[in-house]
From TrEMBL:
SUPFAM superfamilies: PIN domain-like. The keyword rRNA processing applies. One of its GO terms (biological process) is embryo development ending in seed dormancy. Belongs to the UTP23/FCF1 family. UTP23 subfamily. This is UTP23 sensor motif region domain-containing protein. Residues 301-315 have a biased composition (Basic residues). Involved in rRNA-processing and ribosome biogenesis. Residues 212-225, 282-300 have a biased composition (Basic and acidic residues). Residues 212-322 are annotated as: Disordered. It is found in: Nucleus, Nucleolus.
Amino acid sequence: MRVKRQKRQRRAVRFFTTCFGFRQPFKVLCDGTFIHHLLIHDIAPADKALADVLGGTTKLFTTSCVIGELEHLSLETHKKNRKKIGSQDAADQNSSAIGNPYFESFKAARKLAVARCDHEKRIGAEACIMEVIGDENPYHFFVATQDADMRKNLQQKPAVPLLFGLHKALLLEPPSAFQKEFAAASEEKRLHMTKLEHKLLKKRMDKDLVAGRLNDGDSSDKEATEISPASENLEKHSLRQHGKQKVDHGRKGLGVSDKPKFKRKKAKAPNPLSCKKKKTRAHEDGAKAKVDKDHSETLRSRSRNRIRKRLRKGKTAAETDS
């Protein structure tokens, strides 16, 4: 049962955050009955207990009228207790906490943050909270109260989530039928144009039509003055181009793209680590020069070979020279 209850409460919180813009930290407006219930059932710390219910951080608020009402109840209870007890010691007579449960509630309420209510004279706590909430709950308060009539009245307001205590458990009421209908109607209203938006759109369309007619008139005057053998073909081509430009301009003015633009993939270079290294130019030139040098040396050695002269028999070297 506890898991189902948590799911139901989280669903209700999601409804108010989505439809009415509630955000963390959630602001909880407490009345005197709720503060009194927290103290009687020893639900402390209260902000942590409420955070477990709402699923987010919370901040507790009250109003000066609620604090004044608790103070008044504390004094009234103290007077009744003095009449019942009769004569007491001086210390007991000065103490307002003896037999007075509202005194602790009054002290706890003074520690909470105070929401502005602008009441010079104190009024009832219920009337004060109803005035702070207003018709649309502009400050996004969660209202925590033990007053059933007050919760019933607040269910007829669109954006007011309600909290109450049941013994040691704190519960969040699901959205009422009125609140669900209001959220659906507001969502449907957002889908359609307002009167002001419709008027602005009509004005813009009329302005574009007038500008289009003027452009058409200027182009026809220019084409009438031109004289050429291929004027008819040029005229058709220019009208087509002009029509395309007009349509494109209109669609761009509305912020609508004609076609989705995709980024083309370009051919990527191969992985340099997987490629064979190229031979350098200097190395090739050096090898070629070495081959040429060897070839030239062989040619020189062949040209230097001389034919050896042989001496004939019976002739000396002097005769041969002569």
